[in-house]
Each structure stands twice: as structure tokens, then as C-alpha cells.
Amino acid sequence: MKISRSLRPKGRDDGSITILILGCVLVVVVMIMALTAATSAFLAQRTLQSDCDGAAEWAASAVDPHRIFDGQAANSDRLPLQVDGAREAVDEYHRRFYRKDPTLTMAPTVASDTLSVRCRRVVKITFGTFFGKGGGVERTAISSINSPVSESA
């Protein structure tokens, strides 16, 4: 026996579960995209911090010989750093390893026996365009290091 359409109850919701499933799948896909974008930004930050640490390590050996021989470093257990030497070392590090990265900047700051390098880079992240970051995300890292210990310490 075949039931005619007129005998079916009115107000049935045939197909509404399909719309619900599609909505849930869409939410899950957006969440996966957001997680991927956040992971990409985190890894970019970690890479930048590593690059900045390398520049600081590279430039930490820029000891100022004039201040050592003048006796200005006698009251410290660390060797004094040369401002221009540290700047040149960071510039050389950038030229040698990152000359093909136009968005990376490294700026050293020397305070007596401590060297700080501030690094900035704009990175493209996965699905960045979808979240309004098509031009990339700016990442910043700071690395500080002390100069080598003097022999008198």
C-alpha cells in the first residue's frame, strides 16, 4: 500500500539534519583553520627568537680593547663591549645568513657588558588571508646576552 502525499503529516522536517551536519562541519573546518594559523604564527615567533639569539651570540664577542687596557673594566667581572663592534657584528650576521629576507631587521643595543638585539620580521601565516592577515603578521623578539667573563673574575 502506497501512502499518498496528502496523508503525510504536515510540518515534517525532511532534510533538516543535513543542514545541521553541514553547519557543524563548517564550524569544525574553521576551528582547524584557526588552529593551523595560530600554530604557524607560534612557529614563526620561535624561529625569529632563535635567529635573534644567534645574532646576539655572534656579536657578544665584540669586546672593547681600549676600555680593557685603560683600566675601565677593572671593577667588573665581565669584559666591556664595543658599541660599534657589536653593531657591525650583528650587521655581518644579518648579511651572511639572512640577506634574502627583506622583512627581517636586527637592531643591537649595548649597555656596558650586556648586549640586546631586537629583531622584527613580517611572516605570512597559513590561512592568514582568511583571518584578515593576508599581508602577514609582525613578529618581534628580543635577545639579551652578557659579555664574556674576564680572567680576573
Which secondary structure elements does this structure contain, and how are they paired or packed?
Layout: H1 16-59, H2 65-69, H3 83-98, E1 105-111, E2 114-123, E3 137-146
Antiparallel strand pairs: 1-2, 2-3
Helix pairs in contact: 1-3
Index terms:
single chain; 153 residues; alpha+beta; three-stranded antiparallel β-sheet; 3 helices
Short description:
With 153 residues, the protein is an alpha+beta fold. 42% of the residues lie in helices and 18% in strands.
Q: Could you explain how this protein is built, in words?
A:
This protein has about 150 residues and is α+β, with helices and mostly antiparallel strands. The protein is about 40% helix and about 20% strand. It has a three-stranded antiparallel β-sheet. Strand 1 and strand 2 form a beta hairpin. The longest helix is centred in the first third of the chain and has 44 residues. The chain is rod-shaped.
* Unreliable runs: none
Q: Could you tell me the number of beta strands?
A: 3
Overall shape = rod-shaped
How many H/I helical runs? 3
Largest sheet: 3 strands, antiparallel
Encode the helix/strand succession as letters. Answer: HHHEEE
Work out the radius of gyration.
29 Å
Helix content: 40-55%
Strand content: 15-25%
Pairing-aware structural class of the strands and helices? Answer: alpha+beta
Distance between the termini: 102 Å
Strands across the major sheet, in which order?
1-2-3
